[in-house]
Amino acid sequence: MPRFTVEVKFQQERTKEITVYARDEAEAEEKACDRVMAWDEVIDAEAMNVMED
User: Per-residue pLDDT averaged across 2-22, rounded?
Assistant: First the structure.
């Protein structure tokens, strides 16, 4: 039987809570997304829920 090499493009979606220090919710969302965008292989990030500790 012949052997084939196939390149496959796929996407995964994950959620993770991270902690940031910010003056308000908008700044916290921006900082969190900026931090996650710096991770390897991350294409896009969106803040889902903001809670003050």
Answer: 96
